Amino acid sequence: MIPHLFSRLPGALIALSLCGLASAASAAELQLQINKIADRNGALHVFVFTAPSGFPAEASASLHHVQNGPHEASVKLKLDVPESKEYALMVYQDKNGDGRMNRFLGMIPQEPYALSRNPKVIGKPSFADSAVHPAVDELIVLDLRD
């Protein structure tokens, strides 16, 4: 019985290898430029969403990237992200270092933040207002606001 088990091992390893290649091939790269960074030391938290569900709640993001300071007034990043037809991005600068976006009354950001497409926001931002469909090598520009 044991020799029979090992006879299937090479096929299983090939299948696992192909799964790894498939997931690597389905990745994309986003190029970001984050502007208007006033405080040079707070970490930048970048959240990438690939679907409207849960946007803009940080816990619902498909990807979370942290860029530690110090920063210049503008930072360029390249992120490997899951393949998607559209993305919405949220960035905030963690000025007090507590690892979360501080909000007044649980809603109004108290730290610098930005959304892709830089929409004017009154109330909860929508995925549609922030969604981008970037071409290959297209730079997505986000302007932090206090």
Textual characterization of the structure:
It holds the Pfam family DUF2141. By secondary structure, this protein is α+β, with helices and mostly antiparallel strands. The chain has one domain (27-143). Helix content is 18%, strand content 33%. The chain contains three helices and nine strands. The protein has helices spanning 2-7, 9-25, 127-130, and strands at residues 27-35, 43-49, 63-67, 75-82, 88-94, 103-104, 108-109, 113-115, 139-143. The strands form three sheets. It has a four-stranded antiparallel β-sheet. It is globular and about 35 Å long. Mean pLDDT is 84; it is low at 4-25.
Short description:
The protein has 146 residues and is an alpha+beta fold. It has three helices and nine strands; from the N terminus they run H-H-E-E-E-E-E-E-E-E-H-E.
Topology summary:
Elements: H1 2-7, H2 9-25, E1 27-35, E2 43-49, E3 63-67, E4 75-82, E5 88-94, E6 103-104, E7 108-109, E8 113-115, H3 127-130, E9 139-143
Parallel strand pairs: 1-9
Antiparallel strand pairs: 1-4, 2-3, 2-5, 5-8, 6-7
Question: Which properties best describe this structure?
Answer:
globular; alpha+beta; signal; DUF2141; 3-stranded mixed β-sheet; 146 residues; DUF2141 domain-containing protein
Our estimate of the beta-strand percent is 25-35%
Radius of gyration: 19 Å
Number of strands: 9
- Count of alpha and pi helical runs: 3
